[in-house]
C-alpha cells in the first residue's frame, strides 16, 4: 500500500526530548514539504506565530509552556489547524480540556512510525471538525456528539461520545476509567454492560473490543 504524503503541507514538531525530536523531524521530512522543530513550548509558540504550519505535533509535558498552554494559545485565533498531542502519560486528566480545544488526536510515546502516520492521517481527516477516527470510514465528532459511519450520521449521548473519545486516545479504557470519566463514581456491572450493548448497536461490528476483566479498546 502506498504511504500517504503531504508534499504541499508543513508541520511543526514541539518536543523537549532531543532524541525524540530528531527522530520525528527525520521521519517527517519524507512526508511533508517542510518540518519545523522547537525544544519547548515557548519556542513552539514563537515558531507557530512565524511559520503558521498546516499541522502541529506537540508534547504535553514541556518546560516554559506545556502542551495545553501551547494549544490554548493557538486556539485563541485558530480553531482549524490540526493539533496532535504526543504524551508518555495516560491523557485522561487532560482529555476533556483538550477536546474543548478541538484537539484531533493523541499519540502515546514512544510512537512507532505506523502509529505516528496513522495519527497524522486521522488529524487531517478531522481537520476543522474535531474528529477522532475510530475505524475505516468511522468518525466521531466530539463537539457535535455524532458518529459518522460510511457517510451515515448517528446522534450519540454525551456519555457515549465521551467514552468513544476515551477509546480513541487510549490503548485501553479500564473499568476504573469509565467510572471516573463517565459516571463520576461506582457503577454496577449490569449498567456498564447495558451501556456498551446499546452503544454497539450504533457502531459497526468490532469497533469496541472487550479486554477480559480489564476494560475495552478499539478493535
UniProtKB/TrEMBL annotation:
Residues 10-124 form the Response regulatory domain. Keywords: DNA-binding, Phosphoprotein, Two-component regulatory system. PROSITE patterns: RESPONSE_REGULATORY (PS50110). Pfam families: Response_reg. The keyword Amino-acid biosynthesis does not apply. The modification 4-aspartylphosphate is found at residue 59. GO terms for molecular function: DNA binding. This is DNA-binding response regulator. It comes from Sulfurospirillum tamanense.
